[in-house]
Amino acid sequence: MSRPRALVRVLVLLALLTQPAVAARAEGVVLAHRAIVTFDVPNHGVVIEDEVTLPAGLTELRLGAGFTIERITVLDNAKVDPRVVVEEVDDPDGPWQRLVIDRMGLRNGGLMIIRYGGTFLESVADVVFSRENVGNEITATISDEGVYLSSAAEWLPRVEGALATHELHVTTPVGFETVTQGERLVHQVEGDRLVTRWYAPHPSDGINLIANRYFVHEEPVRDGVVSMTFLLEDDARLRATYMERTKAYIAMYEEMIGPYPYAKFATVENWFPTGYGMPSYTLLGGTVLRLPFIPYTSFGHEIAHNWWGNSVFVAGEGGNWCEGLTAYCADYHYKELESAEAAREYRRNTLKDYAAYVRDPAKDFPLTEFVSRHSGATRAVGYGKSMMVFHMVRRALGDANFLNALRSVAADHQFREAAWSDFMATFGEAGDRDLGAFAAQWLTRTGAPRLALGEVGFRDDAVVVEVTQDEPAYDLDLPIVVTTAAGPEEHIVHLDGPRGRFELPARDARAVAIDPDYQIFRHLHAAEVEATISQVLGDDAPVFTAGPGAAPLQAAAREFAASWAEADDVAVTDDGRPVAGDHATILLNPAPEVLRGLLPAELKIAGGQIFLGGRRYAAADFDVVFAAADPQDPARTHLVVLCGDPARLGGLAGRVSHYGKYSWLLLPAGNGRPERGNWSPGDSPLVAVRNAR
Predict the structure, then answer these.
(1) Residues forming CATH 2.60.40 domain(s) in the chain
(2) What number does CATH give the domain 451-528?
(3) Less packed terminus of the chain by CB within 10 Å, N or C?
(4) Cis ω on the peptide bond leading into residue 516 (within 30° of 0)?
């Protein structure tokens, strides 16, 4: 056994400090951590002593920049007496420390024992986490409000691209319960301290550690699996709901994909906004956790991540596939269970999001470059387009082949990385077809097809349809639906060039439609999309203007604008009218004559009442938000906000951002879930009706 060596700290040369640090990835490498973690919550501190089992040939590790290293000992199985050099690295993505093992690394593997500590107090006040936007995320904070160490803080030494197993012995003040991935094996009070041991024997690509004053409960799901809740209030009804939904979702996904890969699933409440799925648990902000629809929608998405992303990991290169697949197996699947029409509307909303948030080609990117979402555009591509790719594969292969392929990937890549190429190879085997060209056009190419309906000829026994698409052309299995006296008939035609002419057998055809059910990921025509709030959310530089009003209204308008733009000193004009140009105008309490010019036909406001969606509402009880097409330029969308009390106006921006897919909202004057809906879209240019064309 080699003797400990003195810790040597070396500052990297200035040339290194001014350039990105690049470390070789180590796919296939698995580290093993056995760490003692002690929190000093009043002083925002943590001390960690980690024994890391290292593989042969390893030359360097990473550690977060916020830690001060007290000592390092390396025990080399080859007994070559290695030394560790610590380099401080200034990376554009954030500083970190490089732990370099000399003597050509560990020849036969070994053990690193490292003790280090740090203090962390990042503010959570500005954290944003919503469907439309994720921002100002933190990496680490330790306070009386709670403890949060994310894997991004690099609080355990790691190797770029490597996986790791974990055994954690965590000490906290009594009352502070900890939670992380894996199984809780020890939970005991020692004086004024609580000691908890977490054991995670399966490799993972990162680890978070959470602590707070939780009420903890546990119930069996089945043999070998338990459900746990970590709530900041002892809410029996909330606990029971999440326990029941956990059991139901695990049963659903075990049937769909395969056995649940972990010993527990925990629902963990966070004190600031999050919506994270980690191996064997989810961390949800308290407000979201208590929304009545979450247990039946987004919560299932987080459980599905335990197969996709948290046990089959995303490969370091080639794009993040797991968000689209998880959305397909969760959010979209629930709509399929609801009805065919609900599933169709989900696909339509996916295409609407792409139209709203990726209008600017500069915001688009191929799926092979998607890492994570941080905006409406990254969500529209990384989640929405990805989800539609899986949907198109399923339609090509059939349900049975598609599900068998998913099960194969889940089994073959459990606790390993998988790439898009692994999925496409498995899909190809399941369907006995080459998906190389399909993968190239949908994964490596930016954009989507733009389809148009050309000449249509109706005959007694057939309909002749011409379809065009922009170049460079996509290779498409395109659905065309012919409506006859007997009902709709779907035909799948092959379009691989800029123009195709297809003769479809049909007796007494009355209408023909290109992809009326939104089965293909494509650009929507403007006439297919009603005005929606997302079209304004997708505008990076909307113009804010307020109608006539006293100083309180003008001040509230500025507060609304600052909240919407997430910036200070946002200009708000007092013109109160739509502004000419390329950007949306957000009109706050516009004058009646301006409002009349923007009201859609489906909305009427008169006599202190709102008439909308076939219902009547008392105007005094609601704030009204609606998207409106510009009267002079229907391709532009504006947003109108009508608020009866300036004191409420500033807070509306945050509420509106959660409902981008809708055209209108009626927000209760207090809190409460809004009434919401959409305007009727126009006539699609992809539809032709007999005797009407």
Answers:
(1) 451-528
(2) 2.60.40
(3) N
(4) no
CATH architecture of residue range(s) 533-677: 2-Layer Sandwich (3.30)
Query: What is the tens place of the pLDDT at every residue in 384-407?
Result: 999 999 999 999 999 999 999 999
pLDDT digits 0-9 by tens, 442-500: 999 999 999 999 999 999 899 999 999 999 999 999 999 999 999 999 999 999 999 99
Helices (H), 264-419: 286-289, 298-304, 322-327, 333-338, 340-357, 376-379, 386-397, 399-412
Question: CA angle at residue 420 from 416 to 421, to 5 degrees?
Answer: 90
Residues 6+ apart with CB under 8 A from 306: 253, 260, 261, 262, 265, 277, 279, 280
Secondary structure letter of residue 673 according to DSSP:
P
99, 84 in Cβ contact below 8 A? yes
Distance, CA of 540 to CA of 517 (rounded, Å): 30
Report the alpha-carbon distance of residue 86 to residue 10 in Å, rounded: 6
Pairing verdict, β 585-588 and 543-546:
parallel
Residue 466 near residue 501, CB atoms below 8 Å: yes
Place of tokens 């792409």: 354
Residue pair 381/357 in contact (Cβ under 8 Å)? The answer is no
CATH class of 313-441: mainly alpha
| Closest to 690 in 3D by CA, of 486, 463, 510 | 510
Dig out the tokens for 668 from the structure.
């209760």
Helix (H, G, I), strand (E, B) or coil at 135: strand
**Residue 4 half-sphere exposure toward CB, CA atoms < 13 A:** 8
Tell me the backbone φ, ψ of residue 586, rounded to 5 degrees: -105, 110
Angle between helices 399-412 and 386-397 (to 10 degrees): 120
As a dihedral over the C-alpha atoms of residue 210, residue 373, residue 25, residue 73, rounded to 10 degrees, the angle is: -20
Q: Give the 3-state secondary structure of residue 387.
A: helix
* Residue 123, both tokens: 């503010």
The residues with which 149 forms a beta bridge, in sequence order, are 140, 209
Q: How confident is the model at residue 4 (pLDDT cuts 50, 70, 90)?
A: very low
Per DSSP, the three-state class of 379 is helix
